[in-house]
Structure to design on (279 residues):
């Protein structure tokens, strides 16, 4: 049952000002391209300065950046993310995301390999909504095969906004086919939340994250699956304070909060030893 919100106003991170010592890890930030809006979402202005300001305000130690689903030039965005990971060591990491329909399977596989092996990215993204790809189709295989062979998790877009390709049920077979691959559901909105929780309960390689969620379902997921299966996902800099606050109220104590805001991401993205602070 969802707890009374007043129970958590005194928690470690909920100090508005977010002067937390938790070392929060933000797993889902879209780096905008300069002076243009994303082709799918029409979003813009989530530049590195805005992201770093939000991180400093919210006690976020590290953020994992990725292009938006409709970026004009994902290859350039990947290289920008790398540049920022060098400028802010231990604070900025990368997830590679591209549309195989635009660049072809060979170039996609090559870019994924370059991003992980050379640019030290920590994951890949499959965006069935923006790229219009059914996760069960042969066209999607390059994402699952690349992530598995490179040994990084695959974040996947799920939610009501991109149905049918973002139906979480379509990932059940893939999760069973690739038991060693960690699959992260990028969203947990009302329409798919219970299905996502149910699938993650049956398939131990599915992890959940907070974007687009309501607190009651986050609390349900944490209660049923444990905090080790949940991560912070804010989409953009402006979303960080609200997403962190949701997880404060969705957890039952500061030890669970530390897991969802930090420990799960440390393990899933293999970040131990790569942050500024000792893991
Ligand atoms: Zn996103």
């Amino acid at each position: 049952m969802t707890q009374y919100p007043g129970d958590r106003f005194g928690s470690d991170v909920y100090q508005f000002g977010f002067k937390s010592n938790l070392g929060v890890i933000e797993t889902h930030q879209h780096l905008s391209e300069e002076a243009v809006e994303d082709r799918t979402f029409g979003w813009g202005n989530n530049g590195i300065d805005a992201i770093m300001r939000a991180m400093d305000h919210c006690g976020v130690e590290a953020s994992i950046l990725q292009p938006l689903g409709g970026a004009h030039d994902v290859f350039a965005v990947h290289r920008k993310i790398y540049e920022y990971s060098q400028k802010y060591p231990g604070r900025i990491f990368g997830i590679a995301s591209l549309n195989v329909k635009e660049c072809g399977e060979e170039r996609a596989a090559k870019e994924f390999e370059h991003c992980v092996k050379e640019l030290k990215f920590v994951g890949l993204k499959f965006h069935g909504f923006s790229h219009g790809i059914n996760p069960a189709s042969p066209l999607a295989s390059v994402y699952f095969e690349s992530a598995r062979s490179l040994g990084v998790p695959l974040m996947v877009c799920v939610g009501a906004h991109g149905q049918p390709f973002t139906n979480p049920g379509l990932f059940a077979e893939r999760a069973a086919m690739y038991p060693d691959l960690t699959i992260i559901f990028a969203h947990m909105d009302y329409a798919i939340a219970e299905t996502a929780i149910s699938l993650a309960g049956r398939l131990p390689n599915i992890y959940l994250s907070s974007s687009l969620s309501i607190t009651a379902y986050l609390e349900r997921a944490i209660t049923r699956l444990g905090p080790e299966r949940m991560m912070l996902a804010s989409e953009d800099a402006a979303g960080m304070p609200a997403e962190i606050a949701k997880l404060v109220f969705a957890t039952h104590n500061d030890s669970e909060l530390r897991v969802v805001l930090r420990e799960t991401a440390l393990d899933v993205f293999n970040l131990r030893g790569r942050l500024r602070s000792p893991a």
Remarks:
- The pocket of zinc ion is lined by residues 28, 30, 186, 235 (CB under 6 Å).
